[in-house]
UniProtKB/TrEMBL annotation:
Organism name: Aquicoccus porphyridii
The name this protein goes by in its record: Aminotransferase class I/II-fold pyridoxal phosphate-dependent enzyme
Alphabetical list of Pfam families matching this protein: DegT_DnrJ_EryC1
PANTHER family cross-referenced by the UniProt entry: DTDP-4-AMINO-4,6-DIDEOXYGALACTOSE TRANSAMINASE, TRANSAMINASE
Biological-process GO terms, alphabetical: polysaccharide biosynthetic process
Biological classification of the source: Bacteria, Pseudomonadati, Pseudomonadota, Alphaproteobacteria, Rhodobacterales
Family in the record: Belongs to the DegT/DnrJ/EryC1 family.
Keyword entries, A-Z: Aminotransferase, Pyridoxal phosphate, Transferase
GO MF, one example: pyridoxal phosphate binding
């Protein structure tokens, strides 16, 4: 009998008790809106922002309704205009080009390497085409951030980082989200903190921070923030910054604060699981493990491997055979968008030039989440199943 995996790839851990208790307190108080505070209690949302700014080493932090909102808010805060081209990754998830489209701007896709990071040669070639790069650290893979910033600095490109998969990760010791002008994060259920929906934006730039706070819907209550710039900065921007409502509420903030306190331990737990799967897959015939650079301290909340130059029907056979044994793989190369995955050429509102080298890689990417509800034995079993099924299809069984 062949082994079958019985776990769920979409089952996250429960919210920690402290988060549940804090959430109940907020509900008992009835004060869910972030500016509905009593006495000298600053409210959960303001406290969360102060704690997240501190955890990331940023001067300013704004908590918002979603990661996608944080990205669009960042684009607005840097003054991206309708019709303006914005560089971004060809390998990313739909909310990234979607955020660009939401401000009327036009995504210009930059290719992907076998390391699953933005192709820096392609970026250098296209650097003259835009003044903003929305950089997606897709699936937790960090590009050489030193070289990337050199290219962008040389061309005067403002970098906005999408850290939906890199909260807690580092490049040469620097936390992800701290190289660009703005770092954006998601606290949607499948990310590194879970409030169902939610997000953050961090920056050291006072004017950008003030614009973001007003954009998020602070009205003239920005003085209640604990991780925002001083009054004078708001005075300079408050009349010409629209309110594009997208606030975080106190209930979600209450759920998030205890999770933030244990972020480092969670990140280490993900990466330990990743290493077990990676070891189990290494050397499997026909399969390419994505080697991680030494400078990268990644968070292994998901894992990818490549089936380079495999025929479509063989990849489909691997997906089917793994699924039959309980292992749910996602394929980024499918011609039709499915589930959470889609290809840059399926975002038809954003016309793209063909990128044959990237297409070859995208076609080969198989992906899987590693929720912390999986134990090490689960991870080893999953790797055995993938290894066996990839091997069987590779050898034409
Ligand atoms: C989840 C995600 C987002 C958007 O986050 P939401 O909170 O779902 O809006 C952006 N980029 C990437 C790469 C993501 O995975």
């Amino acid at each position: 009998m062949s082994e079958v995996f019985k776990g769920s790839f979409t089952q996250q851990e429960p919210i920690p008790d402290a988060g549940i208790e804090a959430a109940i307190e907020v509900m008992k108080s009835g004060r869910l809106h972030r500016y509905n505070v009593a006495g000298d209690d600053p409210g959960e949302a303001a406290l969360l922002e102060r704690e997240f700014a501190q955890a990331m080493g940023a001067k300013y932090c704004l908590a918002v309704a979603s990661g996608g909102y944080a990205l669009a808010c960042a684009l607005r805060a840097v003054g991206v205009e309708p019709g303006e081209p914005v560089l971004t990754n060809a390998f990313t998830l739909a909310p990234v080009p979607g955020a660009i489209a939401s401000v009327g701007a036009v995504p210009v896709f930059v290719g992907v390497t076998e390391g699953l990071v933005i192709d820096l040669d392609d970026l250098a070639a296209k650097a003259g085409e835009a003044r903003v790069l929305m950089l997606s650290h897709m699936r937790g893979h960090l590009a050489d951030m030193d070289r990337l910033m050199e290219i962008c600095d040389a061309h005067g490109i403002t970098v906005i980082e999408d850290c939906a998969h890199t909260m807690g990760a580092r490049w040469r010791g620097r936390l992800s989200g701290r190289d660009g002008l703005i770092g954006c994060y998601s606290t949607q259920t499948y990310k590194h903190l879970n409030s169902g929906e939610g997000g953050f934006l961090i920056t050291d730039d006072a004017e950008i921070a003030a614009r973001a706070v007003v954009l998020s819907g602070s009205y003239m209550l920005y003085g209640r923030h604990l991780a925002a710039p001083e009054e004078a900065v708001f005075e300079a921007v408050k009349y010409d910054t629209p309110n594009v409502s997208g606030r975080m509420d106190n209930l979600r903030a209450a759920i998030l604060r205890p999770q933030l306190a244990r972020l480092d331990a969670q990140c280490a737990a993900w990466t330990a699981r990743y290493r077990v799967v990676e070891e189990g897959l290494r050397g499997a015939p026909g399969l390419t493990v994505v080697e991680r650079p030494e400078e990268e301290e990644f968070v292994g909340s998901s894992i990818q491997f490549l089936l380079l130059d495999w025929a479509e029907e063989k990849i489909n056979a691997v997906l089917r055979r793994c699924a039959a044994r309980g292992v749910e793989l996602k394929w980024f190369g499918g011609a039709e968008p499915a589930g959470f995955t889609s290809r840059y050429d399926s975002w038809r509102y954003a016309p793209s030039m063909p990128m044959p080298e990237s297409d070859r890689i995208l076609k080969s990417i198989l992906d899987m989440r590693l929720p912390l509800t999986f134990g090490f034995d689960d991870c080893a079993l999953i790797a055995r199943i993938i290894r066996a099924e990839v091997g069987a299809v590779f050898q034409g069984e």
